[in-house]
Amino acid sequence: MPYETEDIINVLKSAREAKALSQRGLGARAGVPQSHISKIESGKVDLQLSSLIQLARLLDLEVKLVPKKALPAVDSVVRSTTPQATSKAAASALNKLRQAEIVTQTLRTALPNDSQLHRASTVLRELRSIPIQFQLIDVQALNKALKPFDELRRALARSAALDEDIRRITAAPEVVNKLREATGSLQALRNRLVHAVNVTTAGPKPAYDLEDDNE
């Protein structure tokens, strides 16, 4: 699924969940079966412009083309109208991101040569360096990827946090696997967010590029 399409789908899905609508409920409003909404949200079908506009309006969203220089103002208005529940979820996700970075630093103190922890630390640092409005493009994916780090934080809180405790906790096979999967998910999310930043900040392309893409 292209990055651009994935971002649009994530916005639609988040809007549906914010309205407490099930896939079946949205499908009923749109006149399509639940399975079709599921395929759209999983990127298994191409989302046509007419379908995008229809779904967006059902979710109180509008599809508009705006001048690039107007994007900061548009983003500001969108943030100011974000529901309080979404704002709380975003704040919670950002707090978990900071805590994950602290946990990783603590683990690396005891295991300075662990390549997996080094990789996780690097990805978390890079995520934190991305502008905050882009970090929050997909709060759900961020929370899911950060869950193993939160579990590690809780495990460390229950122990004396001595080096031997850290080595014992991080040596458990299930912890190793979860940490590897979480780091991979964070890397994928980081790549998507970096792409979103680049798309937003890139200069306008000449018109002939559109034709070149179809060759």
UniProtKB/TrEMBL annotation:
<dbReference type="Pfam" id="PF01381">
    <property type="entry name" value="HTH_3"/>
</dbReference>
<protein>
    <submittedName>
        <fullName>Helix-turn-helix transcriptional regulator</fullName>
    </submittedName>
</protein>
<dbReference type="InterPro" id="IPR001387">
    <property type="entry name" value="Cro/C1-type_HTH"/>
</dbReference>
<dbReference type="InterPro" id="IPR010982">
    <property type="entry name" value="Lambda_DNA-bd_dom_sf"/>
</dbReference>
<feature type="domain" description="HTH cro/C1-type">
    <location>
        <begin position="12"/>
        <end position="66"/>
    </location>
</feature>
<dbReference type="GO" id="GO:0003677">
    <property type="term" value="F:DNA binding"/>
</dbReference>
